[in-house]
Amino acid sequence: MFLTKFDASQSWRQIFAGENFPHRNFAHIDPGLPADDAPHETASRDQLLLVLEGEVLAEVAEEKARMLPGTAVVIPAGVAHRFMNGGVMAARTVTLSAPRSGPNGLL
């Protein structure tokens, strides 16, 4: 799993605006609940999930990680993944996706 920390001095919308990220989805996950019912994959699109607020437990392929605000994970096309709120407050995330392009995909 590839986790990274972004510079929080910029607006999240500013960081991810433009042609490189044609699909954006903002989500609200209540405490103790999963974002989806079961692990899933996106066959033709790479994704990047960024935690804006709260705590998210990520499962990507066979790896698990605790994600805090400013932490992101890249999910290559075809890789099973699932996210759950692991904290006591609501979590907010943004997911960016783009068609797989070239050998390295989204990033």
Can you offer a commentary on this structure?
- There is one protein chain.
- The chain has 107 residues and is mainly beta.
- The chain has one domain (2-99): Jelly Rolls (Sandwich).
- The chain is built from 1 helix and 8 strands.
- The strands form 2 sheets. A 5-stranded antiparallel beta sheet has the order 1-6-3-8-2, with no helix packed on it. Strands 5-4-7 form a 3-stranded antiparallel beta sheet, with no helix packed on it.
- It is globular.
- The model has no long low-confidence stretch (mean pLDDT 78).
Terminal CA distance reads 13 Å
Judged by helices, strands and strand pairing, the structural class is mainly beta
The CATH topology comes to: Jelly Rolls
Label the CATH architecture.
Answer: Sandwich
Q: What series of H and E elements makes up the topology? A: EHEEEEEEE
Tally of contiguous helical segments: 1
**CATH top level assignment:** Mainly Beta
Which helices and strands occur, and which strands form pairs?
Elements: E1 2-5, H1 12-15, E2 23-29, E3 45-53, E4 56-60, E5 63-67, E6 71-75, E7 81-85, E8 91-99
Antiparallel strand pairs: 1-6, 2-8, 3-6, 3-8, 4-5, 4-7
Keywords:
107 residues; mainly beta; Jelly Rolls; 5-stranded antiparallel beta sheet; 3-stranded antiparallel beta sheet; 1 helix; 4% helix
